[in-house]
Amino acid sequence: IVDSCFIRSIYKDSYELHGRIYSDWQTISSDERSMMTLSGNPVMELDYACMGVNIIYNMMGKVLTKDAYSFSDKVTRKEAKKIVNILINAKSKPSALAAIRSNFGTKFNARTVLREAESYHSPIRSMFYSSIGLKTMNIDAKIADRVISRSTDLQIPVLSIHDGFVLPQGYKEEITDIMKEAYFHYMNNDIEVNED
Questions:
Q1: Across the strands, what pairs with 160?
Q2: pLDDT tens across 98-135, in order?
Q3: What is the pTM of this model?
């Protein structure tokens, strides 16, 4: 599918904000990516569980012990994930409410769901509405860079998808270990790695 590609990191205002790796293969749907091969081998995907939220908990000296997106019965898990991402990327509570309403309309009461998310994530509530997401993206970019470097050292090709990786089947254990080590290196905490 991809014969050659363009890879870049995008920063915002400084090298400490954002910095995620972007590439052509990230525009390919997950269904199409599943048909790719790396070095002639079929692929699989691994990703970090709730990485951005885990990073924030760890930055605050806390550990996330529950699913980050199970805070409301009024929204689906996919919707909850988008809402949490809005809360950690918004500059203010009014801008978060506006973004939730823009994304979901009147499907649910935005203020109620926002309060549920704040209550559920009370240990990190102070980080909401602070654009902390730019810092978490910078950390996850450093983690991704370490995963890529360590995988390259072992001659295992990987393609990063922000907080996940496409890899040849048969290397799940090696890449899972590398991903966990890379996260621990930066956050001094463990994290779950899932097969996508």
A1: 165
A2: 999 999 999 999 999 999 999 999 999 999 999 898 88
A3: 0.86
Spatial separation of the C-alpha atoms in residues 78 and 80, rounded to whole Å: 5
Residue 108 is encoded by which pair of tokens?
């649910």
Distance of CA 24 to the CA centre of its chain: 18
pLDDT in tens, 70-103: 999 999 999 999 999 999 999 999 999 999 999 9
50 neighbors 64 (Cβ within 8 angstroms): yes
